[in-house]
Design goal:
Length: 162
């Protein structure tokens, strides 16, 4: 959806294919309606207790994944960060310069939670690492205790909206 909207704007075409004469009013209205109807980036965990929705920031480049949630002083209750990798592989995370405790939720390419680990902030040079037990393609970080409080556990299925 993002690329469709971006192309429509950058190519200055309306939705009836009139070409590069600019967006007409109908095209602009359609564009606004489509963008209003799209859902925000998020992850839905399907737990034994029901659905749990988390609004996420997406980290899908090496730079974004390296930065993660470092230096954040807080994180909203139903929010987190989604780390997206190109392939499923063993993953390790650490909490260097992370100021808040987090739950790290490792998710396989099959969109099933493999592991939930709680990690504590680390301000020293020797920080512990938190490895995945199974290969993971996605990782979600949320406030520590969020997974337990909402019943998110290994075996839960996951939907990702980006």
């Amino acid at each position: 959806m993002r690329s469709f909207l971006k192309n429509a704007i950058t190519q200055r075409q309306d939705f009836r294919g009139r070409g590069p004469r600019g967006l007409n009013v109908l095209g602009l209205v359609a564009l606004l309606l489509l963008s209003a109807c799209s859902t925000a980036d998020g992850v839905t965990f399907h737990t034994d207790d029901g659905k749990v929705n988390v609004a996420v920031e997406v980290a899908d480049t090496n730079e974004e994944r390296s930065q993660g949630l470092m230096y954040r002083e807080s994180l909203p209750e139903n929010a987190g960060m989604l780390f997206i990798f190109n392939e499923e592989a063993p993953r390790t995370f650490w909490m260097k310069n992370t100021l808040i405790p987090l739950d790290i939720i490792f998710i396989g390419a099959d969109m099933v939670v493999d592991q939930v680990t709680t990690a504590q902030p680390c301000a020293t040079e020797q920080c512990p690492i938190y490895p995945s037990v199974q290969p993971a393609q996605y990782v979600v970080e949320v406030n520590a205790g969020f997974a337990h409080e909402h019943g998110i556990a290994a075996g839960d299925t996951v939907e990702i909206r980006i």
